[in-house]
Write a structure and sequence with these properties.
This is Proline dehydrogenase subunit delta. 20% of the residues are buried. By secondary structure, the chain is mainly alpha-helical. It has a domain of 56 residues: Arc Repressor Mutant, subunit A. The chain has a two-stranded antiparallel sheet.
């Protein structure tokens, strides 16, 4: 395995991450790597690949000392039961109005 996949959700390989880190300036943050490669933007929001990403950034010796890491967004949002009932009463089509 010469080029393993680091972020399975976004299919980001080790080579892509190394290229991104090599092209950077003097300091690099996990957020920069995320925005340039999409690593950590998949359904798991970095829960699987974050330790590997952090280790890669640290191995360059150019990581930010106070790096906050990746912002994790929930892949779903709460659903009000009334909206679900309205959706079902419309035959599973478009909901006429959603709360929240």
């Amino acid at each position: 395995m010469n080029n393993p996949t680091i972020c399975r959700c976004e299919d980001v390989t080790l080579r892509q991450l190394e290229d991104c880190l090599a092209a950077g300036g003097t300091e690099v943050s996990l957020r920069e790597v995320k925005l340039q490669t999409r690593a950590g933007m998949g359904i798991c929001q970095g829960r699987t690949c974050l330790p590997l990403l952090a280790a890669l950034v640290d191995s360059t010796g150019r990581g930010l000392p106070q790096d906050a890491g990746l912002v994790r967004n929930q892949p779903v949002r709460p659903l009000v039961l009334a909206d679900l009932a309205r959706f079902a009463s419309n035959g599973g089509g478009e909901a006429t109005r959603c709360s929240g």
